[in-house]
Amino acid sequence: MRSGHLTRATGVVTLGDVASFLGRDSPPDAARPVRDVCDDSRAVRPGDLYLALPGRVHHGLDFERDAIERGAVAVVSDRVADRLPTVVVPHPRAVAGPLASWFHGRPSSALEVFGVTGTNGKTSTTHFLHAGLQGAGRTPGLVSGIAISSSDGTAERPIRTTPEATVLHRTLATFVHNGCDSAAVEVSSHAVAEHRVDALDFAVLAFTNLGRDHLDYHGTMENYFAVKASLFDPERTRSAVVGVDDAWGRRLAAECALPVTTVSTSDPAADVLATDIDCGDHRTAFRAHTPVGAVDLTLPVLGPHQVSNALVALAVLVSGGHDPDAAAHGISTVHGIPGRLEPVTAGQSFTALVDYMHNPSGQRSTLPYLRSITPGRLVLVIGATGGRDPGKRGDLGAVAGHWADTVIVTDESPGDDRADVLRDDVLAGARTTSARVLEVPDRRAAIDRAVAGLTEGDTVVVAGRGSDRWQQFGSRRTFFDDATELYESVVRAISAGRSAAR
Ligand SMILES: CC(=O)N[C@H]1[C@@H](OP(=O)(O)OP(=O)(O)OC[C@H]2O[C@@H](n3ccc(=O)[nH]c3=O)[C@H](O)[C@@H]2O)O[C@H](CO)[C@@H](O)[C@@H]1O[C@H](C)C(=O)N[C@@H](C)C(=O)N[C@H](CCC(=O)O)C(=O)O
Ligand SMILES: Nc1ncnc2c1ncn2[C@@H]1O[C@H](COP(=O)(O)OP(=O)(O)OP(=O)(O)O)[C@@H](O)[C@H]1O
Question: Where is the PTM N6-carboxylysine found along the chain (predicted)?
């Protein structure tokens, strides 16, 4: 491959240009113009170059016919396609990032790109960062697991936490086109391992924390950490912001070869520290101490974990040279993040929340807070999503049962896994505790059961799906939005006299 700093000539790009960029011989039809690069046959548009990737289940070349029918004009893959002219490369996935970046004129070098990774808090931190950039007078784009939005107000719901490289670089190019000067980008560990963020120049990368998750994919915590740590490399970013409230963060800060800003809610030696933390049931307040002064924040979001997330966002902005007061003002305009301790109010006297906790470390930071704001009963609706780390399911039940009075185990989104096996694993953990444990497979019925009989001082939390608005059973996908369902359940319970109104 030619240097990643080679910017694409404006105007028409031909298949020969692509071959030349990839350092390969020109295929037949080298003069053929290429409109865009696309790695999914279902998304191909007329004139596209189809990047056919070998996958776990299929090979992209299995879908050459579909790509042709949609208008693909050429292929990049690890073997010659049946019908289309092909540029052959040994590792197609590894060229996806550099190729897409080159094709779109290296958009990440025209933006200041701030990345956020970690097991928990990526989405929240990315949204705080985006708002903080706006507060600091910047014009940022946003790429998070729940929204991709540009400065012109257009927004879309993403399919993944972090898009494939072709989509990511195209999105950044759109940001540049729309006048953005920066971007806040959420980076999952899968994205790093699958080369989705290759050829992306980060200004600052932030690490929130690391806890057990995704071991179905990474195998061990050591591997999981190594994938995250591989991001913190001078080849990828100029500097790092690292949360040091867990041992993995402290290790990363110690081993990292970059300028590091450390962040903590407890360690006075950290560069950015939160004190005077006050987590109420309607807002969260704290004082942030930074190398350039202290600032007070009051956020209309819930939970001590949001102190950590907002603090990481503030540290990224301050380490990037922004004024802490302006950044803090921007951060405090975030009026809730969908599906993250999101309150549902339907005239009830008790607290009803939707949350995305789906691993034990997330539960351990969220549930003690929920207990602290609940003088009455704490009722949790939980489950385990299919296709994800089976080893965490028992812990999910056990941690839930440790903090809650009642745990209702239900279906989340089993996918190709057996729903009853998922529930059994969670139930086994929950039954090791003294909580009241119920199994209600149907999620709507589970929510109704959780809400029934609640009165002032009680809290119900529907956990695990957050703002994801579907359930997948095998190949069948059904619309299901926890916030809407919880709202409707509360309305039904109040009108039937089953639960207390305000
Ligand atoms: C590990 C991973 O990234 N897997 C993704 C990957 O699977 P795969 O490589 O095995 O693909 P495959 O299904 O064998 O297909 C091979 C190729 O054919 C292409 N194809 C396939 C079918 C078709 O009709 N046309 C077509 O072109 C695919 O785009 C792919 O390039 O490509 C598939 C098709 O695009 C994805 O569905 C699948 O993501 C799955 C659904 C997924 O969710 N992955 C998870 C692990 C993930 O990436 N999660 C993280 C976040 C996790 C978190 O934050 O909790 C994320 O960033 O979203
Ligand atoms: N800093 C944190 N520490 C521990 N738990 C957290 C933290 N931030 C969020 N959580 C928990 O994790 C859940 C998901 O939060 P968020 O979406 O911000 O994280 P995420 O890393 O983007 O998650 P995912 O990658 O699974 O989408 C929250 O609903 C909350 O229960």
Answer: 228
